[in-house]
Design brief:
Layout lengths: L9 E5 L3 H9 L4 E5 L14 H13 L3 E5 L9 H13 L4 E4 L2 H10 L5 E3 L8 H10 L3 E3 L6 H10 L3 E8 L11 H6 L17 E3 L7 E3 L14 E3 L4 H6 L4 E4 L6 H20 L8 H7 L7 E2 L23 E9 L7 E4 L3 E2 L3 E5 L6 E4 L2 E3 L5 E2 L1 E2 L4 E5 L9 E5 L1
Parallel strand pairs: 1-2, 1-11, 2-3, 3-4, 4-5, 5-6, 6-7, 7-11, 10-12
Antiparallel strand pairs: 7-10, 8-9, 13-14, 13-22, 14-21, 15-20, 16-17, 16-22, 18-19, 18-21
């Protein structure tokens, strides 16, 4: 279903806990996807108890954003009774949608929470318009298409299917088909398809010849070994106009297990790009600061995935080389009532004299120097360690929830 031209594409961000939800809202997400303590594909991301989920949904609705709850594992029979109870409990909280992949869970959701919209996860690997129409006939309102599709194929699904289409535009790429990986089960006895992935695709690998036990040889000529399953990260920031013109209803950022610095930077950049296009499509230009900002966060190098049928864009990152971010996330602003003296939660060591930059929700980054640090007892100190709450002397302006980075 081609997106309504009067309706902006939705910017959908991950939230692995309540702090990440607040950060996603602060930096401009239209919607957030989260999960409970069980039955999603990221069981190690913290996630939300039902009480926390209720609070999160209430907070999100107060802020005018939508919240979708993932229940996208591939269950066994032993899981089904608990999933039915869980769906009933989630439905009572009235989220804006529930994300599922398994047809059995889909049917349980239809029976248990018929008033809650159902979204189909990318794990269901929807690769054609007939499948999209099938999910529409089953009662789904949105489908997150398979990551293996190119932009032309996604456009065909949009134009041929009366259903909202969602697609990932940023984040980690799974080496396996539509994320259906067996490596973790085989190597670590942790079932990725039931939310317990150990991420063995990011491990370093060598080969051993049978007659030379103990002699490990890198698969490629690299002294550090090779990362034969290690994919580059997806990044479509340079192609937002093409994505919007394709009629995609929602663009999704991966990363419920990633930190708030990653979340803040990605949401801010994609928010700015989307808003810039809608403000003046004819004169839209890519801001070089967007790519600079995305390189500030941890990444495995960027690619455009399968979007443009470029073989080099889906090759493995064999060397595991990562760009130097040039800055380190050090603090989150808790309060900024008095200009120049923000109260911050320290996440990495800072000291007087450090050169820092403020990552605002809107506008350009502002640089400053830490002129002084005051601890919670009101005493001056030259150093603050992770976990401390301190007041900084900064010439730069900042707001509550802004992040502060130390320039390397």
């Amino acid at each position: 279903m081609r997106g309504d031209s009067a309706r902006k594409v939705e910017l959908l961000a991950p939230a692995g806990n309540f702090e990440k939800l607040e950060i996603a809202v602060h930096y401009g997400a239209d919607a957030v996807y989260l999960a409970g303590k069980e039955f999603s594909l990221r069981n190690f991301s913290g996630n939300f108890s039902l009480d926390e989920m209720q609070r999160a949904i209430a907070f999100g609705h107060e802020q005018g954003i939508k919240l979708y709850v993932a229940c996208n594992i591939y269950p066994r029979d032993e899981d089904l009774p608990a999933i039915r109870d869980y769906l009933a409990a989630v439905g009572a909280l009235e989220p804006d949608g529930v994300i599922v992949a398994d047809p059995g869970i889909f049917n349980l959701a239809k029976e248990t929470i018929p008033s809650i919209p159902l979204h189909v996860s990318t794990q269901a690997n929807t690769t054609n318009s007939a499948t999209a129409r099938f999910w529409k006939e089953m009662g789904a309102v949105r489908v997150n298409v398979a990551r293996e599709l190119n932009l032309a194929e996604i456009t065909d699904i949009v134009t041929s299917s009366d259903i909202e289409v969602e697609a990932f535009v940023h984040g980690a790429m799974c080496i396996s088909y539509s994320g259906r990986c067996l490596l973790s089960s085989f190597m670590a006895q942790r079932d990725a398809n039931r939310g317990r992935c150990a991420h063995p695709c990011r491990w370093k690998y060598s080969i051993v010849e049978d007659q030379r036990p103990g002699k490990y040889m890198p698969v490629a000529e690299d002294a550090r070994g090779t990362y034969i399953f290690n994919a580059y990260d997806l990044c479509m920031i340079a192609h937002i106009p093409e994505v919007i013109r394709a009629g995609i209803a929602a663009v999704k950022i991966e990363g419920r297990m990633k930190g708030i610095h990653y979340l803040a930077a990605t949401v801010k950049v994609y928010r700015e790009a989307i808003d810039a296009w809608y403000a003046d499509p004819g004169n839209y230009q890519i801001d070089p600061d967007w790519m600079t900002e995305l390189n500030r966060i941890n990444n495995r190098g960027y690619c455009t995935g399968f979007y443009f049928n470029a073989p080099d864009q889906v090759a493995a990152n064999l060397s595991n080389l990562k760009p130097d971010p040039g800055a380190r996330f050090v603090a989150k602003v808790l309060r900024a009532d008095v200009p120049g003296t923000p109260l911050v939660a320290v996440r990495n060591k800072i000291q007087t004299g450090d050169q820092v930059e403020i990552l605002p929700a809107k506008g350009k980054i502002e640089r400053s120097t830490i002129g002084g640090i005051t601890d919670e007892s009101g005493q001056p100190t030259s150093v603050a360690q992770p976990g401390q709450i301190v007041t900084l002397a900064l010439a730069a302006s900042c707001a509550e929830m802004d992040l502060i980075r130390r320039i390397n």
